[in-house]
Amino acid sequence: MASADSLAPLEREIVDHVFELLPTSAVDLGLHEYDGRLPDYSVEATDRWAVGADRLLQRLEAVDADGLGPDRKIDRFLLRLLLESPLFDLRRSRDLDRNPMVYIGTASLTSYLAREYAPAPQRVDAIARALGAYPGLLRAGRQRLRGPLPRPFVELCLGMGAGLPTHFAEAEAFAASAGLGPRVAEARAPAEAELARFLRWLRDEELPRASSDVALGAEKFQEFLFVREGIRSPIAEIRTAGAADLARNQARLEAIAREERTTPSALFERLASDHPPAAELLGTARAYVDEARTFVAEKSLVSMPEPARCRVEETPAYGRGLTTASMSSPGPFDGEAADGVYFVTLVDPAWTPAQQEEWLRSMNRSLLKNITVHEVYPGHYLQFLHLRTRDGSLARKVYQSSSFIEGWAHYCEQLVVEAGLGGGRHDAEISELHDALLRDCRLLASIGLHTEGWTVDRATALFQSEAHFERLPAEREAIRGTFDPGYFCYTLGKLAILDVRRRLLASKFGGDLRRFHDAVLGAGCPPIGLLEEIVAGAAR
Predict the structure, then answer these.
(1) Distance separating the N- and C-terminal Cα atoms of the chain
(2) pLDDT digits 0-9 by tens, 473-528
(3) In terms of domains, do 161 and 228 share one?
(4) Which has the closest alpha carbon to 253: 240, 245, 263, 261?
(5) Rounded Cα gap, residues 228 and 28, in angstroms
(6) 49: helix, coil or strand?
(7) Is 409 part of any domain?
(8) Where does a domain end: 154, 180, 211?
(9) Number of structural domains, the chain?
(10) pLDDT at 469
(11) Residue 190 to residue 209: CA distance in whole angstroms
């Protein structure tokens, strides 16, 4: 019979093997022995990795689940998904053969710049080694990528790549502040030269023959649901749940409009017109971080591990085309480096005045407050503070379910409204509903783009009509769905947490929301299908 102890060596082998392919993910989790390493994406290397993953899966399957305790049975399943998810990317979706953003995105140095987890010379050394490895990674990309490539992937990659030299310059400036500028400058020059060649190749050779074909197809999409989230539910069932949530949120919005004797469009227009000037966007976000933290503490919604420090900064140049705002949280293995960085995307000076105004309207004061709840308190940053402080297995620390992570943050938007954010006015709830409609549309757009033959224009129209987005942000959302089919995770995860709350809050936690939320965050970041089992176990 197997035991928890007998699973531990295999658990370690599997995690180590996963991070051989994904060393930058290990760095993000705070495993800094992987600092400065980039993956080997040559065909030979990834084929070897896949064969090794197959062998580990066979060994994992041979572990007798009946001999494991309840927690370790769950860990065994997490380890399976840790291997099957990248195998899907390599063999089924073929990301390395069709998505140039994989190669560009690997160049992020944010983990080394955002937090003082180690002395500056150690972090500079990691930056220099990563930059030194980057030309080889890009050359592997040119050898592997086989066109015609999807047009949205190429266009977004060109935009991301254009921002990388600025990001590298930020890294050199950091190194210079430690008296080590030449160390980074020496590695930066060949990295930028190879980057320029890569981008020219994409622009001159691949963009003219790019394809509109972005879809995974229904069969692969169903596989994707399992390997990413452990979900076996049919696609149609998930689509029905998303459509029902969209209808509920639309009905509530219409009820508020009737109460205020206006229309939903007028409600959003009122919010959109109240936005900070471009120069005050970061300062407004900083004020909202402090406000959200105070609200969570006063309402006793969830425990607040200490230390808790979150800075607000501008989104790095390479990421501005992809995100409105994002959170860089300390990893569960990051030791004492508890700082989080809340990135907010500012107006691009290259935009037309009309585009700049559109962006600011989409970052109005009420919506920015809702985004801050999602990203910082009690959303992502607080979630990862809990993950850092909880005892748990290696598998629980490493496994990251997007539907759990994003579902929690999206759930928090509704939670704070339920707790009275906004002081009785409807603005906070209108903003929460606005973002809920957005997430509902993401789910429907993901399924439409990848299984129902939708075009980007059709998905854009969905965001405009149902989420009340203006053209620029609506198109950005639609394009995101082409390369990020998993952005269904927000709605799917929120609905799962609400369902577990309905089932367990009274029966297992005596109606105590704080105890319930602490148990949810104590679960790690498991596949959402396992959430009820884990939370119920924590209540015993």
Answers:
(1) 26
(2) 899 899 999 999 999 999 999 999 999 999 999 999 999 999 999 999 998 899 98
(3) no
(4) 263
(5) 18
(6) helix
(7) yes
(8) 211
(9) 2
(10) 85
(11) 28
Indicate whether 353 and 464 sit together in one domain: yes
Interacting residues of 361 by C-beta distance below 8 A, sequence separation 6+: 272, 273, 275, 470
Contact 75, 393 (CB under 8 A): yes
Length of the chain: 540
Domain boundary among 157, 179, 211: 211
Structural contact between residues 191 and 253, judged by C-beta atoms closer than 8 angstroms: no
Is there a single domain that holds both residue 369 and residue 457? yes
Distance between CA atoms of residues 489 and 529, nearest Å: 12
Q: Which residue, 21, 23, 22, is CA-closest to 32?
A: 23
DSSP reduced 3-state for 339: strand
Domain carrying residue 298: 224-539
pLDDT digits (tens, 9 = 90+) for 418-440: 999 988 789 999 999 999 999 99
Query: Torsion angle, CA of 505/506/510/516, rounded to 10 degrees?
Result: 0
Q: d(Cα 535, Cα 165) in Å, to the nearest integer?
A: 45
Amino acid at 158: L
Which residues have CB under 8 Å from 503's CB, separation 6+? 532
CA dist 91 and 97 (Å) reads 10
| 448 domain-assigned | yes
Give the mean model confidence (pLDDT) for residues 71-79: 93
Condensed to tens digits (0 to 9), the pLDDT of residues 342-398 reads: 999 998 888 899 888 988 988 899 999 999 999 999 999 999 999 888 878 999 999
